[in-house]
Write a structure and sequence with these properties.
The chain is of the alpha/beta class and 359 residues long. The chain is built from 15 helices and twelve strands. It folds into two domains: 11-177, Rossmann fold (3-Layer(aba) Sandwich); 185-343, Glycogen Phosphorylase B (Rossmann fold), CATH 3.40.50.2000. It has a six-stranded parallel β-sheet with strand order 2-1-3-4-5-6, with helices on both faces. A six-stranded parallel β-sheet has the order 9-8-7-10-11-12, sandwiched between helices.
Length: 359
């Protein structure tokens, strides 16, 4: 419960699962918006015990067998039989693990930022039809495992995601293009808009520091610009990079809390296309080169970002494109920043919270 909120206010349960950091970042952004609107907010991580094996397999797959993982990801997206079996399994887990959570919190609405949480809570909704259930997507496409027929609404970012859900059979009038929820601090005025960025090139690999940092950083170190490599929570990566002898303009750091300030000051972002990162970079109006990606969902993110001129591939010609994108007069830079301004959804969390409270 949020202190000072009356007992008869709307009770919101935000359900997430800790695979990557994007799901939890979106969940925290939503919690802040709901609380500011007077709702009572709780978090649900009740399905975590059943995620331990799958989480281990996921990280093993994306690190050691990305090709196989990507093939399985796409197969699950296309095969209805796999979706049915997946749904049955997670609904069974929901009945077993979430009934007590429902009785303890008695939520009016559950907002899920992870597909397995959405499916698990649908089992409770079947017995409690008054419960509202909303899915808040944190990627730029909709995998079939996100599809839950009993969901009351979905929040997405791009029009292609609306088409994805409609293709599965979902009702278009219940799909909100509110955007991916990000921290409110990204909506603060940016004094660098319209000026040349004097900050560093920022190398990102998500909160977990995923990707071939050494190879990318060696190429970036040949450019005459300061570079900040953000390793996230990957301390092993940070130690390995620190052991290398770099020019003085190369800086290695771990997890950064003040990401809004960093991105607003950056002259270029280089890295992988996580969904929440995409929303944050878009709002920060800074050019973005994609150098690596997780097989499956981030391949879809990559393609849709490029489709809307929100990023460019830089895996083959990183140095050449970086030189162009740091130039304030470059048409490439200007076009990308214009597209980011068009597609940015800084009020995504507030918009989604208002829509949910109006259900």
């Amino acid at each position: 419960m949020i202190d000072g909120v009356e007992s008869d206010c709307m009770r919101v349960l935000i359900a997430s699962l800790p695979i990557g950091t994007g799901h939890d970042i979106a969940a925290r952004a939503l919690a802040e918006s709901f609380a500011q609107k007077g709702a009572s907010v709780e978090f649900s991580h009740h399905l975590i015990p059943d995620m331990r094996v799958q989480t281990a397999l996921y990280f093993f797959g994306i690190r050691y067998m990305p090709g196989i993982y990507g093939t399985l990801f796409r197969l699950g997206d296309r095969a209805q039989l796999l979706w049915r079996r997946h749904r049955e399994a997670w609904r069974a887990d929901g009945q077993r693990l979430l009934a007590g959570a429902y009785e303890a919190h008695r939520p009016d609405v559950v907002v899920a930022t992870h597909p397995y949480a959405l499916t698990g809570w649908s089992a409770i909704k079947e017995r409690r039809p008054e419960l509202k259930l909303v899915g808040a997507l944190t990627d730029l496409s909709v995998h079939r495992f996100w599809y839950e027929p009993t969901a009351d609404a979905y929040a997405v970012w791009l029009p292609e995601q609306v088409q994805d859900l409609v293709g599965f059979g979902y009702r278009p009038e219940r799909i909100w293009q509110s955007g991916i929820p990000i921290r409110a601090s990204f909506n603060q005025p940016n004094p660098l808009i319209g000026q040349f960025r004097q900050g560093p090139i920022v190398l990102l690999g998500g909160g977990l520091g995923v990707g071939p940092y050494m190879r990318i950083l060696k190429r970036l170190s040949e450019l005459p610009y300061p570079v900040l490599a953000v390793c996230g929570s990957n301390e092993r990566l940070r130690w390995r990079l620190d052991a290398h002898r770099w020019p003085e303009r190369i800086h290695i750091v771990g997890y950064i809390e003040h990401m809004p300030t960093l991105l607003k000051a950056a002259r270029l972002v280089v890295g992988k296309p996580g969904g929440v990162t995409a929303a944050e970079v878009c709002q920060s109006r800074v050019p973005w080169l994609l150098t690596h990606w997780i097989a499956g969902q981030e391949e879809e993110n990559r393609d849709r970002l490029i489709m809307h001129d929100l990023a460019m591939r830089g895996d083959n010609n990183l140095q050449e494109l970086a030189q162009q994108l740091v130039d304030d007069n470059s048409p490439l830079r200007q076009r990308m920043i214009f597209s980011q301004k068009t597609w940015a959804r800084p009020q995504a969390a507030d918009d989604l919270a208002a829509r949910v409270l109006a259900l």
